[in-house]
Specification:
- By secondary structure, the chain is of the alpha+beta class.
- Helix content is about 25%, strand content about 30%.
- It starts with a helix and ends in a 13-residue tail after the last helix.
- It has one domain: Roll (Nuclear Transport Factor 2, Chain: A).
């Protein structure tokens, strides 16, 4: 029981460090807080959302968060963590982002889910789930351009 509680505290601390760096705008995220291995993609086209496209290596994770963060006004936005669950090395954070787009001043709220796996003080897996169409509608002012492919063919 004590071992499980210690592991949960350790996972919470590691994920908490990630969120602190994210909130502070530190896109470089230290090796103890950013994923060591990363494979994945962000739906959509980089022509619509600058942070869209594939992210296959750890080095690309800070670039993703830096580009994403540059589109929104941090002084006018807020993030709340609505629920945080830990099961062994895995964690799930359910959040609400309140964002204001720098380019057009649009304000919107969006539920977001993060799934993490922590090993030896490192985030080794990070999955981000959000309403990409909601983001695109607010960033572009119109939603997805019908000419832009949602998924590669």
């Amino acid at each position: 029981m004590a071992h499980e509680q210690a592991r949960e505290a350790y996972v919470r601390e590691t994920v908490g460090r990630f969120f602190r760096l994210l909130r502070e705008g530190d896109s470089s995220a230290s090796p103890t807080s950013s994923p060591r291995r990363s494979t994945g993609s962000y739906p959509g086209d980089e022509k619509v959302l600058a942070w869209g496209g594939r992210r296959m290596r750890r080095e690309q994770v800070p670039e993703y968060f830096k580009t994403l963060g540059s589109a929104f006004d941090p002084a006018k936005g807020a993030t709340s963590m609505d629920k945080f669950l830990v099961d062994g090395a895995d964690a799930l954070a359910l959040c609400t982002f309140s964002l204001v787009v720098k380019a057009n001043g649009r304000h919107f709220n969006m539920p977001v889910a993060f799934q993490f796996t922590v090993e030896s003080g490192h985030l080794v897996r990070l999955h981000l789930y959000e309403d990409t169409e909601l983001v695109a509608r607010n960033v572009t002012g119109s939603g997805w351009d019908r000419e832009v492919a949602w998924w590669p063919h």
